[in-house]
Amino acid sequence: MITIRPGSHVLTLLSILPFVGEFPMSALRLLGSVRSYKDLIHKLTQVQEFRFPDRDERFTCRLLNVCGRGNRKTVRFHKSALPMLKWWDEDMYRLYMEEYDNHNFSGNARHINRNHLLAETAVMCLRAGVEANPLDTPDMLEDDIKMLRCANPFFYFAREVKRAYKEEMNKIRYTRLAGVLTLQDGVYTVYNLRNEVPNWMGEGESKVLWHMESMFYPIREEEHPYHRSALMFGENYDVALSLMQTIRETKKLDYGLFRSFFRIRYIPMNDFGVRFLRLVTSDNWRENLLLSLFEPKQCTTSWGGLSFNVFVDGIDTYCFLDGDIRNLFNFRDTILMRNEGLLPRNTIRGHKVICYPEQLAFVQEFFGDLVEYATVTMDAVESALELDRPSLID
């Protein structure tokens, strides 16, 4: 008999699958120990007896089903588990049946990949303390969508955004948008590359950006700190490097996503990425982070206040502690133009990039010997900013 206790891996799976539908076996690391979850999932694909603490009811069923091979290998509810889900939480059961066609899943690779990237994004958000369960997020209605300024961050799946903006739904139906993450003072547009570099040369993401602005901002707020900001998840920094090298080698500087957004914060899907996501969804984190490291007079200004360029003893320093790959790309171009005499150096004696140790290999590969390097640990940042938002996954 398996007792589904608070904090157990079984309860984690039972709580997440109703709103993500299915979860990729290749991303079990996002939930915890890969070996523990693999062993548990294998056990749960067999008939077991289940009970909940302090409840008399017993259920005998296969909780999970594993389908597919390779990257398409996926974990879903078994149909015999649905009565237990309905008994445990009728709202969760109703959400699951409505969102996933009464427990009918497509075998199409594109649909499976789409469900997987949404599930990965949602779990990353939950681990960073960002609510992603549609039953626990404020309603997103077209009439009051601009009023979504909540004290806590929330992640909304793309399907929720499209429902709230029905008139324009068809124009953004085929974009790669994963969803939006709302904050007290702004909104991030969210993407998940997984392990592939996309060909985003079209106008689809520009349309997404235009609609996000019209939905979430009453007026065009050029000076807003989150104006034209995106979060981009990826499997690791190798994906980010491939993206940057593709743009550099093909000289496609008007690359769709780079043209559309002022800031693109790249987040690897691992434990460091969870901590980084917690940072960039905290209140006033940019200003507090810079001012904890430098004097105000050393910092330059940009859209919405302080940028992440500082000048220390004649060294032009870019703080990649904000994870912004778009401005990192721009910083490299600026250095090359100065070296070629296309931009004046003035009193600048050199260039430096400050990053986290987890980012160092990526930054060194991208810049080579163009800059000096320095690192700041995430422990130091979390301590300085007193970040303590707990995970929403037990």
Describe it.
The protein is of the alpha/beta class and 394 residues long. It folds into two domains: 2-105, Arc Repressor Mutant, subunit A, CATH 1.10.10; 122-385, no CATH class. The protein has 14 helices and 16 strands. It has helices at 9-20, 34-44, 82-88, 90-99, 109-127, 158-164, 204-216, 237-250, 256-260, 271-280, 285-293, 325-339, 360-367, 378-385; strands at 2-3, 23-24, 48-51, 59-61, 64-67, 74-77, 154-157, 179-183, 186-192, 229-234, 263-268, 299-302, 305-312, 315-319, 350-355, 372-375. It has a five-stranded mixed sheet with strand order 7-8-9-10-11, with helices on both faces. It has a five-stranded mixed sheet with strand order 12-13-14-15-16, with helices on both faces. A three-stranded mixed sheet has the order 1-3-4, with no helix packed on it. Strand 13 (305-312) and strand 14 (315-319) form a beta hairpin. The longest helix is centred in the first third of the chain and has 19 residues, at 109-127. It is elongated, with a radius of gyration of 22 Å.
